[in-house]
Amino acid sequence: MGSIVVDVMLKPEILDPQGQAVGGALPRLGFSGFTDVRQGKRFVLTVDGDVTDEHLAAAREAAEKLLSNPVIEDVVSVRVLEQDSEQDEDAEQ
Q1: What is the pTM of this model?
Q2: Residue 59 CA: distances (Å) to CA of 4, 5, 42, 44, 47
Q3: Each residue of 53-66: pLDDT tens digit?
Q4: What are the φ and ψ backbone dihedral angles of 52, each rounded to 5 degrees?
Q5: Are 19 and 9 in contact (CB under 8 A)?
Q6: How many other C-beta atoms can be found within 10 angstroms of the C-beta atom of residue 81?
Q7: What is the pLDDT of residue 83?
Q8: Whole-angstrom Cα distance, residue 33 to residue 83?
Q9: Which CATH architecture best describes the domain 2-92?
Q10: Is it the case that residue 9 has pLDDT exceeding 80?
Q11: Strands (DSSP E) along the chain, which ranges?
Q12: Cross-referenced InterPro entries, in alphabetical order (predicted)?
């Protein structure tokens, strides 16, 4: 099975209250050096077999039409999730 990752972020001019709340909490919890926090959304789309160019094109179209709100969000990434990356992310959690 293959997976495609779609990352969506609020446009820079849109206020991000959740990001601001996290940004305010970081120093109180001892995490310093961060100047801004923006929150976003991540979608993982799974396909049977290997990811093809057609799958990626369909994922890009879905990202623009369904997974994001183009008025306030940008699709920042549509990419194949590599197996090693998936295992690394599972280990981090």
Answers
A1: 0.81
A2: 8, 9, 13, 10, 11
A3: 999 999 999 999 99
A4: -105, 170
A5: no
A6: 16
A7: 74
A8: 32
A9: 2-Layer Sandwich (3.30)
A10: yes
A11: 2-10, 40-47, 73-81
A12: PurS (IPR003850), PurS-like_sf (IPR036604)
Domain residue ranges of the chain, discontinuous segments joined by +: 2-92
- pLDDT bin (cut points 50, 70, 90) of residue 69 is very high
In angstroms, how far is CA 82 from the centroid of its own chain? 15
**Distance between CA atoms of 40 and 73, rounded to whole angstroms?**
9
Give me the residue label for tokens 């990202």. 63
66: which residues sit within 8 A by CB, 6+ positions away? Answer: none
Query: Which amino acid would we find at residue 90?
Result: D
Of the candidates 40, 36, 15, the one whose C-alpha atom is nearest the C-alpha of residue 24 is 36
